[in-house]
Every structure is written in structure tokens, then in C-alpha cells.
Amino acid sequence: MSKDFKLGVVFTHPTQHHGPLWRKLSEQPGLSLKVLYLSDENQSSGDSLLGEGAKAWDVDLTSGYSHEYLKDLSAKVPTKQSKTVISPGLVSQLTRQNFDAIFMQSFVNYSYRLTALLCKLRGIPLIMQNDASMMSDARYSRNRLIAMAFLYPWMNNLADYWLSCGDHNEIHLRHYGVADEKIVRGCHPIDGDRFTQTVAAHPEEIQQIRQELGWDENTILYGFMGKYIERKNPFEFIDAIAQAHQRDPRVRGVMFGGGDLEAPINERIAELNGEVINYGFVNQSKIPLYFAALDVFVVSSWIDPHPLVVSEAMTVGTPPILSDRCGNWGYSDTVRHRDNGLVYTCGKPAALAEAMLEMTDAETRLRYSDRSKEVFGEQDLYCEVNAFLEVIKRIKAKNGMTTAQTLTAVTSSKPADRIPVNTP
Fold first, then answer.
1. Considering the chain, what is the average pLDDT of its residues?
2. Which terminus of the chain is more solvent-facing, meaning fewer CB atoms within 10 Å of its CB: N or C?
3. Which of helix, strand or coil describes residue 12?
4. In-domain check, residue 415
């Protein structure tokens, strides 16, 4: 008797990136999906790492798909994700009767490890995805890297399939023992439709934001968005803006976010003459408009496996400058040097300043903007949906399964053109 393929997801908490993915997967014929959340973080309060000004996300993260919040050992649903969380409900939920396959992201918490154990004991195919790269491993001590060399190949091969998210991520998976036949190229999901639709609907507000952030119509705005924490390397952004501004007074930096380093960031900015402003927290519904108001988006992190803000900026055509310590640059990755953006040597503010000055040329920005939208079109939400559908097809073929309807690849709608802004 034919039936839907039942995909289970074990996930830390609802996110603005994955909620739309679960919704889109749930729309696919022949596929039944249920998400088991280990906490309800971001549903009632903001991300604590973004500081006191952060608020709960103001976009819908949970409608349109089946989901359940699991209780921990205290019989309560955790309000924050935790490495030590154990959700006993997984034992009764993760069965062959309930699911044909399970997806999870990593082994970072105890519930994920329990999920992997239950899948192996009960013969449930396990699908995984993370954003690790060899560059992000550089943060670890020599002893830990030695332990990883022995442990990771065993752990990684507990998964039957891996969805890779980029060039460096695939190198990492292969380095730690994952065979090519287990890897299906996907991406980290971004709801590009929401971004382009928001931008298309509010051109006047984008102009108002530019007027608010710039000195005048000739200002070239470079944005930094995220947590103000050490690994995001915010002071390199500030120093580079100051250097670039000395050579081109149109250059101005805008920082969006919050976190532990906010006070020293404000102290450093106060030493300048308005070259950098700290705008603060912007919620999800408005983020597309602020990306569209920028001329260039910058990520200066010295550790950042695969920063999704880069893809968000590219969605609306804002070209990126990326630190080479981030894991999402490469020939077929998100940022392609001198094709849709620039990659600079992290730890050298002067190198970042040179990249910023190169982006002061309007034709260069326009060329990279157009290519950024094209590249994102290859890595949008539908790319990840199709990666899931490919893995499901392989599982079905291996197990001789049939479904009521055939799972077929989906395609995105054509992205809206970027709303023009008054840039020189």
C-alpha cells in the first residue's frame, strides 16, 4: 500500500532560516514532515547574545508545518537551547512506525546524540547537515584536533547522508571521513521570497533609511550586522572604515546588532567623527529593507563557519566583502572573489580598507550586485528543498519504498529586481 514518506526533524529551536524550509517541505506532495523542537528559544524573548535591546523575532517561524516542543528531564519545555538538554520524549517519538528518516544538524547537545543512538538502534536513516569548515576548526587546541581526527570519522558516519552547504564544508566532511556517495549538495536556507517581496513593497521606506543613515545622497554605506562578540571581529570593521574614510570621505560604516562588546564599540566610535554609527537591533521583518539600503555588506569575522547574513544581503543585491576566515567563499560557494564580491585577508584592517575603496566605484558595485542575485538564485530555499528530496529519493530506492505521489524537484520564482537607491 502506498503512503507518504515520513520525515522527522530534531532541532534546537525555531529559527527565521529553517521555519520557511519546514513549511516548504511540508507542501511537497508525497512527503509528511514533523519537527521536534528541543526548546522554544526566540519565541517569547530575544537572543541573549544580541544584548538588552534584542526582542523576540517578529516573523512567523512555526505556522504551516507540524511541530511539537519536547520537554526536558524537569518536565518543562526549555526556554533556551542547551548542550546538556535531554528530551526523554525522543525515546517514544523516534520509531520506524513514526518516521522513515530523521534529520538533525550536529552532535552538539545530548539530545542530538540520543537521536543518533536511537536511529542506529532502530534502523532509521539519519540525515545531517552542519556548517563546519577547516578554518572554523582553527579555533581548537592541538589536543582537541588530535581527538577530532580519531572521533569525527566515526561520528560523521553515524549519518547515512549529509547535506553539504558549500565548498569548504564539503572539504571538511571529506577530511573527516564522509564518502562522496553520502554527500548531497544543498545550502543553508534563506527565505529569499520574503526578502525580495518586502523590498519590492517598500521602496519609499528604503529611501528613508538611506537618508537616516547617510550624510547626504553621495554617502556610500557599508554595513556590519550581527552579534557584537569577539569572533565577529567588529573592531576590524571600524578601523577599516576609518582608514577608507580618510581617502574617500563618502565612506561610512553602519553597525546593526548588539552584544557583549557594545560598550567598547561605542567608546571606539566616539573617538571618530561620525565615520561609523551603531544603529543597534533591527528585527526580522525590517532587515530586508536595511540590507537594501546599504551599498556594501561586510563580514570581518575571524571565525564564522557560514554566516547566513551574507546570503541575506545578496538576496536583495547588496554585494559582500568577506573575511577569508569565513567558510562561505569558494568557486561554487556564496562569495566568489571578484565575481560577486571581494574576499580579504582577515587580521589586516588595511586590506579590508582597500577592498572597501575598491567598492566605492558604482559600476563595480552594480556588477557585483547583479552577480550576487544570480548566485543566490542557485542557493535559495528551493536548493535546500531539492537536496532533501534527492536524499529521500535515495532512501526510498534503497529500501524499495513507494509513495502516493512522486517527489519532484521544485523551482523558485524569479527574484524581484533590486529596488534602486540613490547611490553615486
1. 92
2. N
3. coil
4. no
Residue 65 counted as domain residue: yes
Residue 135 has a pLDDT of 86
Q: Are residues 218 and 186 in the same domain?
A: no
172 pLDDT more than 80: yes
- pLDDT above 60: residue 100: yes
Give the pLDDT confidence score for residue 268 in this predicted structure. Answer: 97
303 and 313, same structural domain?
Answer: yes
Residue 416 inside a domain? The answer is no
SS3 373: helix
Q: Is pLDDT of 107 > 60? A: yes
Helices (H), 87-182: 89-93, 110-122, 142-156, 167-175
Query: Residue 21 and residue 129: Cα distance in Å, rounded?
Result: 14
Measure the CA–CA gap between 190 and 376, rounded to whole angstroms.
Answer: 9
Q: How far apart are CA 40 and CA 78, in angstroms?
A: 7
Contact between 258 and 54 (Cβ < 8 Å): yes
Cα–Cα nearest to 328, from 155, 185, 132: 132
| Count of domains for the chain | 2
Length of the chain: 424
C-alpha distances in Å from residue 117, one per residue of 55, 72, 190? 36, 18, 30
- pLDDT at position 161: 98
DSSP string, 288-340: HHHHHH-SEEEE--SSBSS-HHHHHHHHTT--EEEETTBS-BSTTSSB-BTTT
Poorest-pLDDT segment among 61-65, 79-83, 222-226: 79-83
Of all residues in the chain, what percent carry a pLDDT higher than 90? 86
74 and 202 share one domain: no
Amino acid at residue number 86: I
Let me know: does 105 contact 112? Beta carbons within 8 Å: yes
- Considering the domain architecture, whether residues 151 and 248 belong to the same structural domain is answered as no
Taking the C-alpha atoms of residue 88 and residue 79, their distance in angstroms, rounded to an integer, is: 17
Please report the pLDDT score of residue 221 as a whole number.
98
Does 372 lie in the same domain as 253? yes
Range of the domain at 367: 192-377
The enclosing domain of 156 has a CATH number of 3.40.50.2000
The helix/strand/coil state of 280 is strand
92, 115 contact by CB (below 8 A): no
Whether 410 is in a domain gets the answer: no
Residue 298 φ/ψ, nearest 5 degrees: -125, 135
Angle at 260 between CA 256 and CA 266, to 5 degrees: 60
Q: What does the pLDDT read at residue 424?
A: 36
